[in-house]
DNA sequence: ATTCCTGCAAAATCTTTGCAGCTAG
DNA sequence: CTAGCTGCAAAGATTTTGCAGGAAT
């Protein structure tokens, strides 16, 4: 069982355990956010789902993304232009590196993100529940043009 | 001359040098983003400006924030709920620590943010031009309630 | 059987745009 | 003077909401 299929199962179980119903539409949405490597927008998710469920509505996608955010199983990235992308693949904190031209997003790992969070908790007296590390730049491909 | 007044002058000079006109409305907007310690929203800025310039329009605030963003003199923070706040006080990268209940924002410094950016550049082959480090949590005051 | 969920349309929110008149340089 | 800026209103874009019918448990 690959890590993606794993993520799907984990999220479904968490939904079921917290008393939420597992509808076909919901499963399809979870599958997409749990397996997409390209950080899709709500519109992207909507388009992909319509292949299998042509009658699904945008509102349903929004409602489910909201639900998944509320249980902490998808991360939301906001671009400088205001558009949002979603990432449901990882629970461990990681960096996003975003090309401001072509909007390609690459993940990067950093070993000591947890340490930083702990230090911030001590310094500021906030109880940290989430974090978002984003770098904006221009990818190698766009640099050529 | 305090650092806030300094920031105001720096931004005004940069605007002038790049051929932009210095209108009273623009000065008022720059003054607010350069000196506000509480990371105001566009609405906040609008409300504060109306004390001195009752006829100023929201559109003008938006246009000027857009301009200040485009020349890199204000940073935009986006909340999990989608609302935006602005910070024109610092140019050096720093962390924002945000209370998700009362929305209070605290700044935190971290010595090696530049090093991290350099490492990311090498690892990903992106030319990094901006970065955003945000921690979401609950502040001590909200924790009591 | 009973809640919760879906899908539709309408509403709400936030931001941008078009344009006529004004003003800084 | 005259290019750029402002203020108004309208349009655009994105996300949320209300509600009736339908589906999961």
Q: Which keywords apply here?
A:
homodimer, 5 strands, 145 residues, three-stranded mixed beta sheet, globular, alpha+beta
Polypeptide structure, described:
Two copies of one chain form a homodimer. Chain A is an alpha+beta fold and 145 residues long. Chain A has six helices and five strands; from the N terminus they run H-H-H-H-E-E-E-E-H-E-H. In chain A, the strands form two sheets. In chain A, strands 4-3-5 form a three-stranded mixed sheet. In chain A, helix 2 packs across helix 3. The longest helix of chain A is centred in the N-terminal third of the chain and has 15 residues. The N and C termini of chain A lie far apart (41 Å). The mean pLDDT of chain A is 90. The interface between A and B is large, with 36 and 36 residues. Chain A binds a DNA duplex (25 and 25 nucleotides) through helix 2 and helix 4.
Overall spatial form of chain A: globular
List the quaternary state of the chains. homodimer
Radius of gyration of chain A: 17 Å
Strand content of chain A: 15-25%
Mean pLDDT across every amino acid position of chain A: 90
Count of DSSP helices of chain A?
6
Uncertain stretches of 5 or more adjacent residues of chain A: none
The H/E string of chain A reads: HHHHEEEEHEH
SS content category of chain A:
alpha+beta
Chain pair sharing the greatest interface:
A-B, 36 and 36 residues
Number of strands of chain A: 5
Distance separating the two termini of chain A: 41 Å
């Amino acid at each position: 069982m690959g890590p993606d299929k794993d993520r799907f199962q984990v999220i479904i179980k968490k939904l079921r355990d917290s008393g939420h119903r597992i509808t076909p539409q919901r499963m399809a949405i979870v599958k997409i956010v749990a397996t997409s490597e390209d950080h899709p927008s709500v519109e992207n998710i909507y388009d992909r789902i319509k292949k299998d469920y042509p009658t699904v509505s945008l509102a349903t996608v929004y409602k489910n993304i909201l639900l998944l955010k509320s249980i902490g199983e998808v991360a939301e990235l906001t671009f400088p232009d205001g558009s949002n992308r979603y990432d449901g693949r990882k629970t461990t904190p990681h960096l996003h590196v975003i090309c401001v031209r072509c909007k390609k997003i690459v993940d990067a790992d950093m070993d000591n993100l947890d340490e930083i969070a702990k230090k911030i908790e001590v310094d500021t007296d906030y109880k940290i529940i989430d974090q978002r590390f984003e770098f904006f730049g221009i990818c190698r491909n766009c640099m050529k043009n």
